[in-house]
Write a structure and sequence with these properties.
Blueprint (H helix, E strand, L loop, with lengths): L4 E8 L3 E9 L3 E10 L3 E3 L3 E4 L1 H19 L6 E8 L5 E3 L9 E2 L7 H8 L4 E2 L2 E2 H11 L9 H11 L1 H4 L4 E3 L1 H10 L3 E3 H5 L4 E2 L6 E2 L1 H7 L8 E3 L4 E4 L2 H7 L6 E3 L2 E2 H9 L7 E5 L3 E7 L4 E2 L4 E5 L6 E7 L3 H16 L1 H5 L13 H8 L11 E3 L17 E3 L7 H23 L8 E5 L6 H11 L2 E5 L5 H13 L9 H4 L2 E5 L6 H26 L3
Parallel strand pairs: 1-6, 6-17, 6-18, 12-15, 19-26, 26-27
Antiparallel strand pairs: 1-2, 2-3, 4-5, 5-8, 7-11, 9-10, 13-14, 16-17, 19-20, 20-23, 21-22, 22-23, 24-25, 27-28
Helix pairs in contact: 2-4, 10-16, 11-14, 14-15
Protein name: Carbohydrate kinase
GO molecular function: kinase activity
Keywords: Kinase, Transferase
Length: 535
């Protein structure tokens, strides 16, 4: 029996922070958690921003909540770690304070900067051939999306000269928070990889001055590089006082969500595959190969474990589609899911959430939704095609199409897209036959079964799958504190809880719908451009 210690894991998401108190012993045990939401500011031209102070305030408030609930002295917290949204841009001055609001990973204002930076001259897949090949050689990927932080940096340089002149360091979301905690500006390797200025070749692991010059980035703006498990330092007196913790509490590097959600799912060894469905979603397989599929936009991204990568394909909107269904299709039109009352309140309430009732309401709807297909591109898409103008639609609606079929088709559409990524990734990196499924959506048994049926893979879930990012951050703290000594040991801390096997009866109808699903983007690409391209 291992001696037990407590750590705090901060999961800094797109719309809120979840702070989780974990006990590290023979297993990672969630003791208490607290969540606080914050907003996104949507701006003309595709801008999406957040106030970094909102992240800090949410950390402060939720820390107080979990310590109060657990009746724990702050001195008992041995360390803190972070999992956060990635590919944001937080520019700070010499006092390490933001010079402007943070630009979210969803921000897509930098079209002009991307066009000037990489969409000129002789092209491969629409990108400048020399810059594409040079980037692939050095980083293993390329800044091929208008949402990539490199173009956000260039946008600020071009549009906000006064603010840009004050920039001291370029940080990602969790790196800003660790900087504020410790007074030391650093960036973990996974976030560095996402800048596409990091030399990820074996034995290199450094900022690449040649790429900085090629893209016009000032090397002095780039912070010190660290591993996810590195101890950055202790909480400063000021940050400890603000967070209600003890000065000197160990702060570890942590990682981005694309890195640590896989760790928290228990997918830590070569060949382990996990699927995530939160606000966004992805399919990822652990590999030792540094490889990329330009056509499919799948790449080996740097992970938390030295010498290993995550072969990663992203879905821009995943669980966000279900939230849209709840807010606009279900609530707006059918008065709380067909029953015209709040089904979560009152003595006779049997559903713990509106989502639970939504999923229960479609359990008898036949697989395939009677041929109705939903495209889950409510905010554009990244993989296997990059198109910020792509949008969602219900295809093949008939007179007998009811709301339950529409709702089920949304779940199936999200799963079809993940199957698409999974099948394309197989070309270079084989996926595991059993897949760990995490994220808030993984709490629904019916969604787990639909995903198993559509992918043809066995699906496993873990305890509290919605907290996989925080679980991964806690595992990183366990390594940093020396409570475990290898990434392989993380599997012992995070066992599987339930599993779903594919139902062969549903295969033919899902295969039929999937064959149509894959053709809908190309059939409508030109229409999306006409309707949704920002002027």
């Amino acid at each position: 029996m291992k001696s037990k210690v407590y750590v705090l894991a901060y999961d800094i998401g797109t719309t809120g922070t979840k702070t989780c108190l974990f006990e590290i012993g023979d297993r990672l045990t969630l003791v208490h958690s607290a969540t606080q939401e914050y907003g996104l500011t949507l701006l003309e031209g595709g801008g999406v921003e957040q106030d970094p102070q909102d992240w800090w305030n949410s950390m402060r408030d939720t820390t107080a909540q979990v310590l109060k609930e657990a009746k724990l002295d702050p001195a008992e917290i041995r360390g803190i770690s972070f999992c956060s949204q990635m590919q944001g841009l937080v520019l700070v001055d010499k006092d390490l304070k933001p010079v402007r609001p943070a630009m979210s990973y969803m921000d897509q204002r930098a079209r002009e900067q991307m066009k000037k930076g990489i969409e000129h001259g002789i092209k491969i897949e629409g990108l400048n051939a020399y810059k594409l090949l040079r980037s692939l050689q050095i980083t293993g990927a390329v800044a091929g999306s208008v949402k990539d932080p490199l173009w956000k940096y260039k946008w600020v340089e071009a549009k906000e000269a006064e603010r840009f002149a004050r920039v001291h360091k370029w940080l990602d979301v969790k790196d800003y928070l660790t900087t504020r905690c410790t007074g030391r500006a650093t960036m973990t390797l996974d976030s560095a990889f996402a800048t596409f200025l990091y030399d990820s070749r074996p034995g290199k692991s450094r900022w690449h001055k040649g790429l900085c010059k090629m893209f016009g980035v000032r090397p002095e703006h780039l912070p010190d590089l660290i591993q996810s498990t590195d101890l950055i330092g202790g909480l400063t007196e000021t940050s400890a006082k603000e967070l209600g913790l003890k000065e000197g509490t160990a702060v570890f590097g942590g990682g981005g969500d694309a890195t640590l959600i896989g760790i928290g799912a228990g997918a830590v060894e070569e060949g382990d595959t996990h699927i995530y469905a939160g606000t966004s979603g992805w399919v990822s397989t652990v590999t030792k190969k540094r490889t990329v599929d330009i056509n499919a936009r799948i790449a080996s991204i740097v992970g938390a474990r030295a010498g290993y990568y995550n072969y990663f394909g992203e879905q821009e909107t995943s669980g966000k589609c279900l939230q849209w269904v709840k807010d606009h299709l279900a609530l707006d039109e059918i008065d709380v899911y067909l029953e015209k009352k709040n089904v979560t309140e009152g003595e006779d309430a049997v559903h713990e959430s509106l989502f639970a009732f939504l999923f229960e309401s479609i359990k008898d709807t036949p697989a395939g939704s009677d041929g109705v297909i939903f495209t889950p591109w409510l905010h554009g898409n990244r993989c296997p095609f990059e198109d910020p103008a792509a949008r969602g639609m219900f295809f093949n609606i008939g007179l007998d199409t009811g709301k339950r079929k529409l709702i089920r088709s949304v779940i199936e559409g999200i799963s079809f897209h993940k199957r698409w990524i999974l099948e394309l990734s197989q070309a270079k990196v084989p996926a595991s036959s059993t897949i760990r499924f995490v994220g808030g959506v993984a709490r629904s048994p019916i969604i787990c079964q639909i995903l198993a049926d559509i992918t043809g893979r066995t699906i496993e879930t873990i305890d509290h799958p919605q907290n996989a990012g925080a679980t991964g951050a806690a595992a990183i703290a366990a390594l940093g504190l020396g409570k475990i000594h290898s990434f392989e040991e993380i599997k012992n801390l995070i066992p599987s809880k339930e599993r779903w096997n594919p139902n062969p009866v549903n295969k033919s109808v899902y295969d039929r719908n999937f064959s149509v699903f894959k053709k809908l983007y190309e059939a409508n690409k030109a229409h999306y451009a006409i309707l949704n391209t920002y002027k």
